[in-house]
Amino acid sequence: MIKITFRIPFLEDHSEIKKIDTSKILDFLNERFENEISKTIIIGKEKCEIIANDVKQIMKEINDLDQKGKNIFSTPINKIPELKIPENINYSTLSNFLINSNDIVKQINSLSPTSKTISNYEDCLNSIATKLGIVFKKINDLQKFLQESDIYRNYNMVEKELNSINEENKIITNLSSEIQITKKEYGNYSLNNIDEEIKKLKESKEIDEYNELNNKILKIEEDIIDKKNKITSTIGEIRRPINKIMHQTGKNKIVESCFENPLECLNHENIEEIFSKIISTGFISLRNELDKDSISKLKNFQTKFNKNFIESIKQEIKSLEDERERTNNLLINKSKIFYDIKLKEHERNETSKQLSRTDKEIRDRKEEIEKLENKIRERKNKISNILYEILDEKIQIN
Hints:
Elements: H1 25-32, H2 34-68, H3 91-109, H4 121-148, H5 150-186, H6 191-202, H7 205-237, H8 239-249, H9 253-260, H10 271-285, H11 292-304, H12 307-334, H13 336-391
């Protein structure tokens, strides 16, 4: 930033280099250049009065002409506003008066009659047009007079830059407020807190209990398989000799289904009698054709594969399956901890996204504030340079 300083004549110590606040610049210029400003204002006011009176006289002639011709103009005369002299004459009001007077004169000039009911209306219109031309010239003279006034021109430039600074400061204030509101709204959000909650959930005793129940179910599954394998191995040992017997004596669908799926044995009543009958028939009709090993296996099977054996296996499997169901229900209840963890992890992801968006919003606003602050610094430097040209003294603007 270019630092420029100047001596403000209305401060107590005139010799000390002082700073000036932006809000005091126009006051300073008004006091420093009171004579030149007063002269410009006096002349400007006189010119405004002349222009306003001329426009008023022209409007009177137009109204008279309109009344005589019974509303001969296409645009209603009362739609054209009155040109008023500013109550407080300053550079800003003089500029506004120039704009208003120019606009009103253009509206008057655009009027056109819709009828020729007045005999001398052309002379009247020519007279009005001539007077309008004179007013146009006076407006241009006022504009030229003001433009040629260095203090007026520079004052307007300074005022324009100050207005821009004020607007940009308002935007900065709003952006700063938005940042504070955003920080207040999301300031309590923390990933660390959520991470700590997730960690506690993962280290909770429910996880250990869940794992114990899960291991218990796996053990029950193994026990059920062992029980089923007991049936499978028992049936499997006699498959070859039984098939040989049935080949000679006739097939049995129930027995065949048991060989296909040994657990089918548990679903048939008196299955041991069916096997015993086939084996007994085989011993009678095929005794000489069965080898010793087959005979031994068949006899062992008859001894082992009785009603008590089958019922025992069925009960053991049922007990294990009931235990598995009870354990599984407990496991389902304990699995809620994983749902809680999943919910908390989802919350963390959403919070992380929101915090990222919030950080970006804050960064964007800060960048916008920085750009505006740079603009304000540039404007202050511009004002400093303008004042330097006017005063030929160094100035520092806060």
